[in-house]
Amino acid sequence: MHATLPHLAQTDFPAIKRDQLETLQVNLGYLCNQSCLHCHVNAGPTRKEIMQQETVEDVIRFLRSSNVKKLDLTGGAPELNPHFRHLVSEAVAMGIHVIDRCNLTVLHEPGQEDTADFLAQHKVEVVASLPCYLEENVDGQRGDGVFQASVAAIRLLNLSGYGIEASGLELNLMYNPTGAHLPPAQCQLEQDYKRELKQRYGILFNNLYTLTNMPIKRFGSTLISKGEFNNYMTLLKEAYKATNLETVMCRSLISIDWQGHAYDCDFNQMLELPLTEQGKKLHLNELTSENLDERNIMIADHCYGCTAGQGSSCGGALD
Length: 319
What we know:
This protein has 319 residues and is an alpha/beta fold. The chain has a single domain (5-307), classed as TIM Barrel (Alpha-Beta Barrel), CATH 3.20.20.70. Helix content is 31%, strand content 13%. The protein has helices at residues 5-8, 53-65, 84-93, 115-121, 135-142, 146-159, 186-201, 217-225, 229-238, 266-270, 304-307, and strands spanning 23-27, 70-74, 97-102, 125-129, 171-175, 207-210, 253-256, 262-263, 276-277, 280-281. The two termini are 33 Å apart. 45% of the residues are buried.
């Protein structure tokens, strides 16, 4: 595995500051039932890093004492954390909107048979990764059989009410390119997804989000191995749009790792660029408005991935 931070640390990306905190994004661990080529977390079935109950309780305490409106749960596969349901239930009881970043196939894992119903009962927004509506493209990126398993999982979610008009249960799909190029226009691609998935498989969803592949971890290492890293960075920089700076997710989001340490975004977490005070990592328990408001965001060249073209965030295109 090639380290990517040495290729990204020296940057001319413009300085940006934090706005008001609205979203707490929590990585519940790197354990996953898949090992995808594009994964910026290097998640997989053999990863041992997983958030323990003590840290989950820290998250709950922070939610109670803050004005956070959204709890965004990610991984790995967040559902594989044994405390996932406890955290979801506590957050929903506080009136916080919960997002589950689901890889779909996890719904077929042992012990997950009723997960779709649990998510529906708590009105959790599901953001599900499906990098293409073509089987060969998905299996090429994520492994043989993943596409059909994903389609079956969407059917399960549809049966629970997700993606059905007026149900109040939101199922959004996430697209990312299968190679070193920018995603196409989100609006047009959403129309294509809805048409093809309904006609071919009879499945429904609400919105499609597009996400630019970040040149870090597994995907970045692959670019380096193929000698494509510099070309990809040139592509991102040439497509940079200054207007995207106003709405990048790091301005209103804090990312928490499985040990409870804070970062400006999930990508900085993977690059080990934490928030610090006097040279020490900031823990969730130490976060206050004083050490967050108007704070400079940690930047490196990977930030061009969020500001290239139509922009890219955990909520899809920015432009």
